[in-house]
Amino acid sequence: MSFTSITHTCQYNEEDGTMRMYLRGRPVVLHGPSDQDGLDPAKVAPPPQNKLKLEWVYGYRGKDCRSNLYLLPTGEIVYFVASVVVLFNVEEQCQRHYTGHTDDVKCLAVHPNKLIVASGQCAGHDRVDARPHVRVWNSVSLATLAVLGAGQAERGIWAVAFSRADGGSLLAAIHDAPDHVISVWDWQRSDKGHCLAETKCSVDTVVAVEFHPLDRNQIVTCGKNHIAFWTLDQTNVLYKRMGIFEARDKPKYVTCLAFNHNGDVLSGDSSGNLTVWGRGTNTVQRLVRAVHDGPVFSVACLKHGAVLSAGGKDGRIVMFDADVNPTGLENVIEGHYGGVRVLAEGRGSQLYVGTTKNCILHGDLELGFSPAVLGHVEEVWGLAAHPSLAWFASAGWDRLLQLWDALSHSTVWSKDIEERAQCVSWSADGGVLAVGCLSGRWLVLDPHSRDVLAQHQDGSEPIQTIQYSPDNKMVALGSRDNFIYIYRVEDNGARYSRLGKCLGHSSYITHLDWSEDSQYIRSNSGDYELLFWNATTCRQVTSPSSLRDAAWASNTCPITFTTVGVWPENADGTDINSCARSRDGRLAATGDDFGKVKLYAYPVTQPKSLCHAYGGHSSHVTCVRFTQDGARLLSAGGLDTSLMQWLVD
């Protein structure tokens, strides 16, 4: 969290009470209310007294990351999404968060003492703060113990591992670079650690690194076309021996690693095979063919010696004995959760399963699995808080519409709407839920039965925003095709008849708000216009000053007189994706292109307005919304697929 000071070229005209703001050199004239006292654009407005505290993170990154789910002795599972590492106690339903990273976390490792965690991130927006690096931290206190490799990796850290045979004094990291560098660190030496060795690993992609649990200074890496056995010698030089496959058995990818109780290496590959490599050798001791249809994404050796393998495509989890003979015990996870990305041993016979569709399941092989974490799988843009309950809805390009309970932090339901969704909105009474899609189609659903009550098509471009009028008699839809479509709402939101469309914007519609009396609409567009409309006639109000005293039911339009101060200096006009005002009118929040959620005192009429800024998301923050009671703020992270819930203190 940081203070942000904002200045930009704004001119206030005291005679006619207008603010002229420039976005990318284009002037936007904004009319203040007639009772507006004189504004001094050079004055700085203070930040709000309230602050935000991250309360809950919805989502998990299993789609494209590996080895990222572990159980800690505290009873918490540790995993990541966006730039947050989440510690979630499933039984007690409570979360804690490590928020030291500045961009996407890509990998995770737990120290043999089960207390210390290492996590690696990719390069981010900020040239200095967001260089790729590894952070080592205490999972109980959440204190950062060391930051390793900042400035050394080019694009990101792909995999990390602690040494095991010596009690965990070393850490290995794989850097994503053209030659995939492996580095070994004495991480406890100073808060920046000490790099003992660094060498080119492979021109091919490397997906995993592990220290041998019994043999000191032995490391195994694997990836495209290879498995490699490394030795770190007395002089801290790394030597490599490549694993030798028989020609017909050489897989395209060696995808995962584990060690059995004898110290043999077990590897899974893209052909669905399991291979046992004799301890201390680089030769195949045993090959178990076609265990899975498709790749093996995870191999786990359990406390009692049994071996589990999991399929990334077939979703099967298969149990073997310690000598890799099948036991006949297996289970398949339901296809809509995706394939298995990673297995983590829980208490007793319990397992946690991370999936390729960003879910975490919990259960065992005999009784099956149920979801502990559900999330979106592709970009998420739609977010809407229920007008009276503690519910909120989210919708994304993965065709999923999800209803959540902000108090129990749980999914009420999840529905595949068979269309990629761009926006979502509740009717004014919360009776129905409308979803705007990328195809120009929009659907209205009953939130209790999940039935589709109505569906319409307006144009062939994405519906960017939907807003119901405060009296619930009309709904306005802003489209990428530059038009606003207005419908009359009938039958409690189950039927719609088109009143007309508003023509006048010269670019796509980005946001819109209704006046409190449901008579007028204001809208912003991709070329930074603020236009006003008579809702019943669909005609433009060509004299904006006539609406300077209109009371607006919301402030989702970021280009307004009351949100001048949310725009940073030299803003390009598309930096701010979303804006929201709390129901009591005391706070405004924004989500921007730099992964930041910002909180302002409302109205934000001073061009220079200080705010509180919060990281956590690692992609564009696509939407922010306050809950109906103003006690929480919700944010959607676009490409990072996460939803975050913040307490307003």
List keywords for this structure.
Echinoderm microtubule-associated protein-like 2; 4-stranded antiparallel beta sheet; mainly beta; elongated; 5-stranded antiparallel beta sheet; 649 residues; single chain; disordered N terminus; Beta-prop_EML_1st; 58 strands
Question: Looking across the biggest beta sheet, what order are the strands in?
Answer: 1-55-53-52-51
Please, what is the average pLDDT?
Answer: 94
User: Helix content range of the residues, please?
Assistant: under 10%
Structural class: mainly beta
Q: What is the strand tally?
A: 58
How many whole angstroms does the radius of gyration measure? 27 Å
What are the segments in which pLDDT stays under 50 over at least 5 consecutive residues?
Answer: 1-7
CA distance, first residue to last residue:
14 Å
Largest sheet: 5 strands, antiparallel
- Share in β-strands: over 45%
Protein name: Echinoderm microtubule-associated protein-like 2
Main location: cytoplasm
Domain EML-like first beta-propeller: 95-363
Domain EML-like second beta-propeller: 380-647
